[in-house]
Amino acid sequence: MTELDDSSGKTRGCHVYVADLNMPWHAHKVLSNKHNITALEWDLPGDKLVMADTAGNVQLWMFKDHILNEWVLIGSAYFPGEHILGAAWFHNGKKTGLVTEKKDSIHYSEKFNHLLFAPSVRQFGGRAAEGVLVVSTTGMVGAIMITKDLQNPTCYSTESLGNTRHRITAVDLCYGKNGHFLVAVSSGSICLPIRCFRVLVRKNDDKCTITSQALPSFFLQDGAPKDNSCTVVTHLKFVVREDADSLVIAANSESGGFVEVWELREKSQPVHKLFQPKTLEPFKTVVWQYQSQYRCQSPVTAIATTKLSIVTTLPPPSYVIIALADSSVHCLNRLDCLKEVAFSSLNTSWRPDEPSNKYFKNSVSIAHMDLSWLGCVLLACDTQGNMYLYKLLPDGTTGTSMSLSYACTLLEYCLVTGLDWLDILLCLRSSMIEALCERLDVSFNRQLQSTQQYHYIQFLSIKTSLYRMLITGQNKAADLSSLLMIHSVATAFKSLLRPSDLISHDKGPAESLAAVITDVITDVDKVLLHLDPKEFTVEPSTLQSLQQLIQWVADLALNLLARLPEQRMQMKTGGYELLKDHKALNTVRELLVIIRIWGLLRPSCLPVFLRSADNLDVLALLFCLLSKLVQPNGDTQQQVDDGLIGKSEIHRIHEDIMTTKLAIKHKDSLVLKENKLHEKNYTIQQSRLKRYEHLSLPWSTLSVFVVYWLVLCPLIWAICYKFAYWPSYWSFLFWTVAFLIWIVIMCGLIIFWRRFQVKQSLEINTISKYGSDKERRPRSVHQISSEDSEFLRTKKWNDSHESESKSDRENLRRDLPPLVIHKQISGENIEDTDGVVCVEENEKTRLSVASDYVQKSPLQDYLKLVTVSPSEDEVKSPKTPMSPRDLFFIDLIREAEKVERSLKTRTHFFPSETTENDSAETVKSITNGTDIEDVEHRKDVKDTEDENVKDKKDNKLRSKRESNECCLLPNQIMIPQLHQGNSITAIVSPILFYQNLPLQLEYGVEPEQLVFTPEMNPVEGCMHSGQIVDTIRHLYLGRQPLLVKQCTRCGGKAQVQNMTRTAAIRAWDQRWTRACRCGGIWRIHKASQ
Question: Where does the Mediator complex subunit Med16 N-terminal domain lie (predicted)?
Fold first, then answer.
């Protein structure tokens, strides 16, 4: 046999290849051996491989950095002169079964039980050891154990199966529940018995010992052949690898072959009366009992049985699959006396439109077969190196297809045990996937919170892979991938936060931030007032290494808000949508707050945006819009939603500004005079009404009293008194209930009167002071206070000194702290103060200059690459009184400087308390700042509540004006592409449902008929770079990177790590080292030259 790439025949030998079933055309060579490989087995987790040959060499291999096409040798052992026949890895002692009686239970803990199953070899503390057990043709049994020692990575020992060595031609091994192995061997002749042994491996210090004990043996049912034909036992196979009670034996003769099933059972044996004990209990022994037989016309060439039994019933349901020399495959039901369930042959035509002689392979027969762990697919290999993949119905199913309930149970089993669910995806129908996702989601949400948290990542991976099987489910799969990444980024960021004092704090920084986020706060800077700056201090070098993750969080928030209008206009479909998951959106808001704080420590770690204005605070805008989307205020929910998606309202902002300017400029116009006259008339009318307010409540109370007590109650009493058989206490009960009802009526009347008075007072205060000259009414109503006249008188004087004030403001701005400058340039130039709309002249100048610049310059020159916050050189002490927020920022920057100074002299994170002077001054400054912050915070909260009550009717206009920025995002900021629609070539994809099976694939050639390009909903204004993006670290890898890691399931690509990294980013990479976020295995992908 030559290598797959060799066409000249120069590499003859024995070669071992591995391939993922989702991309079988990419086969990777593990090693080349000059001796024939006779034993090849995966371990239970599926990341190690044992190979044994005819010369006695046993080699243990494993993935290098969990890469499918890179392998490293763990250790090896050499048994001279031994021909190894079989091998099995040590069991890790983990076994989970589905309780049949509780399969309809809600909780996973009741439905799935961890069964008692001991590890094959125990180490110190009861931990399971890793290693293999091998059996040779001479009856030798050997154990090779991995020691984790660099000098001696393995240790091994040998022992004889029986008292004497004897020749063995067929062998199989299975696991016992007490930690032992059960070994069945045959010498080949049907005249000799099938021998069984109990093998126990123990570790003593640095060595391992083997103990073998003989068990009852048995002869086949046919016994010695009567026609002198040569009948040879060729295969032994336990029905279930973890069940030692059933054994399948296959034997061949010149005329054909047969298969027998034997079971190990307890049987009562008769005892002679002379040897009977005094008790009447029968003597029981364990013997092998014949169960069933299946005869075939051709010799048996391969046999496969179930690896894992999911249910706990005895005997477990299982299949026995045999391959014959005539290239046929037969599936037999073990519980139904080996009744044939399905049949297939390599000689039959695969497609009805092609002749059968095209696929006639009389000289080809199947050499080996194996089932997946869940028993959904069968993989067969013939004598010419071709592989065949068959889809099977799992054990215990009825009908011609997998049912919805059983598919959900299998996915839940994979969720609990961590097994791969690829074979389940191959057996699903496209019409049942959406219903399966909903059922799986409902079942998961019923679990306990601790159970959901433990299995959350695995659950999202399974659900994402299900939606990826549908053409219409690509957007849902992208949202679920984003949700998984949000959860992972939040976990990584919050793990870097350290509480300043573990004794005095009941909650950590993450819990404190989550509690603050739940409040209705739309300003990200106000959130910082409730947080302790020391708890969010992180090393600047660590922050810089996390910049790509910070950038991804900002890009995700931009994409969510930018696609909100298009998603609201689309038809509502089932499934998951990230925009409707308020818990995930709150997590994004928490991340934005953390990024805001970290930007003060390291401005270079902030996300980078392509925006149209330098003074646009993108982080604050994103936090504000997400806050209004997640936490609407009562009745304004519909107003916020309409404002977030209403593109037709964009021009109203400019109309409101122009109306306000016109009202201020023409202060002596007829409009203002008429409004004053209306105000006077309305005030006189309200004063007249107030004269009778004190008489309204008594008159209403008297009217209700007369109607209730003098009319209604006597009428009801007269009607009820006519009925006979009333109890003696009826009159007392009647008038008591009437009195209680009267109290309720009076309470309701008083509450109604109070609300009426509040409404009247609000109507008096909301008087319009100016209107339109019969041309057009303003869109909002504003109250001009008594101080506005002074403002209008001094306006001309302010206009004359505008140029001088601008220069003074620029000089003052240079001396202010960076965040005060950020507050002034954040775009909040239109403010509502005491009900008066004040428009600054610099806003008018900025809008006019920006509009002229847009008309003259192209868009590429108009957009500039800037960051969110200022540089570190601009941080100076303020000359004006500082606000609580400024004090918070100053404390945060001081804490960061302390950390940087301490890192130069010390190795730990926070400054030491041994320096008494420095620590005393620090505590004093922090205490003073905290006291000032608390007082100002209380005052700010009180003023905010009063302002909300006073300006309740102005919230509608203000919310519309602010929420229109969501639709302006594509015009203000360049939206980066978050999810790429890169094509993938794999078996498990939506294209599989539209293919004519079976598919003919070729090694090294990606089939064009399986190329699938997902269609994602476009985002307005999205920037398509055309580059490959790292799905883990979110870096641009180029259009055609030469060397990357590629996932074998989703096709995502990641960077091959070969650089020095910080501890934070190293921990992030290790999170995804073992598998991709979809659960797939990584492989090294090299671009074709």
Answer: 77-336
Q: Choose among 353, 252, 359, 355: nearest CA to 295.
A: 252
Among left, alpha and beta (phi > 0; psi -120 to 50; other), residue 958 is: alpha
Q: Of 790, 799, 807, 780, which Cα lies nearest the Cα of 840?
A: 799
- The one-letter amino acid code at 257 reads G
3-state secondary structure of 198: strand
Instruction: Give CA–CA dist 898/902, Å, rounded.
Output: 6
The CATH superfamily label for domain 238-349+362-392 reads: YVTN repeat-like/Quinoprotein amine dehydrogenase (2.130.10.10)
Angle between helices 547-562 and 965-972 (to 10 degrees): 120
Query: For residues 300 and 85, what is the distance between their CA atoms, to the nearest angstrom?
Result: 18
> Contact, 1048 vs 23, CB < 8 A?
yes
How many Cα atoms occupy the beta-carbon half-sphere of 635 within 13 Å? Answer: 4
At 915, phi and psi to the nearest 5? Answer: -80, 100
Least Cα distance to 623 among 602, 605, 603, 599 occurs for 599
Question: Is 139:160 a contact under the CB 8 Å cutoff?
Answer: yes
Q: Which residues contact 182 (CB under 8 A, 6 or more apart)?
A: 173, 174, 175, 176, 196, 197, 198, 199, 215, 238, 244
Q: Could you tell me how many residues make up the chain? A: 1089
Q: Where are the domains of the chain?
A: 14-219, 238-349+362-392, 400-469, 473-633+958-981, 1025-1088
**125-145 pLDDT per residue, tens:** 888 999 999 999 999 999 999
Distance CA 467, CA 1087 (A): 29
Q: What Cα–Cα distance (Å) separates residue 381 from each residue in 160, 370, 556? A: 33, 9, 46
Query: Rounded to an integer, what distance in angstroms lies between the CA atom of residue 1056 and that of residue 1072?
Result: 12
pLDDT in tens, 477-524: 999 999 999 999 999 999 998 876 654 556 788 888 888 888 878 888
More confidently predicted of 818 and 444: 444
Give how far Cα 320 sits from Cα of 303, 330, 744, 1020, Å. Answer: 7, 8, 78, 57
Provide the H-helix boundaries in 495-563.
Answer: 509-517, 524-527, 540-545, 547-562
For residue 319, the SS3 value is: strand
Give this prediction's pTM.
Answer: 0.71
Q: Give the count of beta carbons closer than 10 Å to the beta carbon of residue 333.
A: 17
Classify strands 975-976 and 1022-1023 as parallel, antiparallel or unpaired: parallel
What is the per-residue DSSP string for 700-728? HHHHHHIIIIIIIHHHHHHHHHTSSS--T
Q: How far is CA 818 from CA 602, 871, 893, in A?
A: 13, 8, 11
